[in-house]
Amino acid sequence: MEQIVFGIGITALTGALATVAGSAEDTESNIGSQGDPNSQVQLAPQMGFLHRIFNKAVAGEPPAYGLWCALGAGLAWAFMAMQINAILAIVLGCVLAVFVQGVYATTAYLGRTASLAKFGQPVYVDIIKSMTTVTMAHAFIAIFCTVALCQLINGALGHPFPLPLLALIWGIALGAAGSATGNPYYGKERQYQNQKFGAGVPISASGNIVRYAEAGERNSIDNGFFTHKIGGSASGICFGLIVFLELWRTILFEKIYAGWGAIAVGVLLILIFTVIDRYIEVWARKNYGPYTAAKEAES
Amino acid sequence: MSAVAAKPQAGGAMNPTAMAVGVVLLIIILGACWVVSPNLGLMALIGIIIGGVLIGFGTHFVPVGGAPAAMGQAPGIATGVAMLAAGAGLAGLFGGAWAAEQGMVVAVVTGGIGGGLMMAITCLMVNFVYVFGMGIPAASGKVLHDPITGDSQAEYKSQGTEGHGLPFVSFVGGVIGGILGGAGGTLIYLELLGLYEATFPTMMNATAAQVLPVAVSVAGMFAVALFLVNAVLTAYNITGTIEGPHDPKFKRWPRAIVASAVASALCGFVAILIVAM
Fold first, then answer.
1. Which residues pair with B254 in a beta bridge?
2. A15 touches chain B (CB under 8 A)
């Protein structure tokens, strides 16, 4: 019983860490403009719309976070093998991983923006100075939380995988959840704030991203501030739920019927999420209604 | 003929010669494995091939819209095919590896359910953001009616787009893809773990308990690597984006099955060679 209570406590803590990690990951990727919406940041100058948005997408978010988390965890593991306190080791490992992220962000911005020189897009040195550190700070939060939750899973809950491999797996899952949930909000709602609310961006509008703010030109920190409210929170809830429910069903129900208990609870959870998804879909169709009459659309 | 003048090839067309070459390659690799390690190695390789095929087939179910989905211009999840499949499958592998002690069937099913649960949560949150964050209902661009619910789709597509969000069939496809991917990844891990647990003690002149952490780590790394190989290979077959099982591109799966089987066999053979040679 005591072991189960301990397990539930660790599960709750990992869920909370995952929620913070998901939120920070999405905000970092939006400030750095790393997900799929970056295609528009890259496209805009080619369509004649010069801007001051950061531009660092070289890899997708999942492999990038897989790398950074595995790097942070691997270094933390090495520090722990040198008898350094676990918390200090994780902090040091993540700091070093974040420096790699910073180098990656700087070279990506310079390289990608320089490739747009023939379209007249300047490389802004002040953008590198002011925004790289902001993405690094958010990346540190995301990497630290992910490595810390992997250490809890490995050390306290006894998962057989070593820390770096766990961090690689959960880093990729973090990037996948964060980019899947957060990208549409940044791509449609923020970059195309000049388009109608409640409709997708017409393909003809591609590249015409919003470039001006209340005062002066819009920058990527404004984007992070805006998207964090819904995109960041939703990404955090998404990754937090994935980690929490995966651990929760294992810790509580694994012993029931030799493992089949956890499977049954997993199936039940999938069915519950399916019903909620269907409810949301029908709710949207009823409340927002169709864009055109049915016959016209089918013709 | 220049690249511009060339007509686009029918993406779904099967090339019988290429398929035959693939099958022959598969038989050659299986034969080589039989020569090197006739019992344990060959059985492990067959398990790895089945796991790889499950991953390759499962990836076709995952609804991925890529960059257009991020602007609400196309349905699906706004990220890459291989990356999303990897995220879901590896989350499944995490659960499956944990349940390894409870037997192969329980572990593989646990891995599958772990992947399915990850995809169910992700797909739900995608629709949540579309509906409550952006005020956009889900609509498919490839079919007039949702094959499962029968809901009409065309009039819910906003002007100038190919659809947006995840219609119910795409949600179900995502969950199925996660289940197949998680189960396949776990199967590969278990086959390699069994092989390494049996062979490492003799190789390293150590007890079974001493080699267990090494066996788990090496099997885990090969399982992740094989997962990525199969997911990326399938992403090439899909060429960018797919809405799910109702998408015409889904019919290309036989090609991916052969390719995944050959790639898994080759990579699995390398994983077996490190203990068989």
1. none
2. no
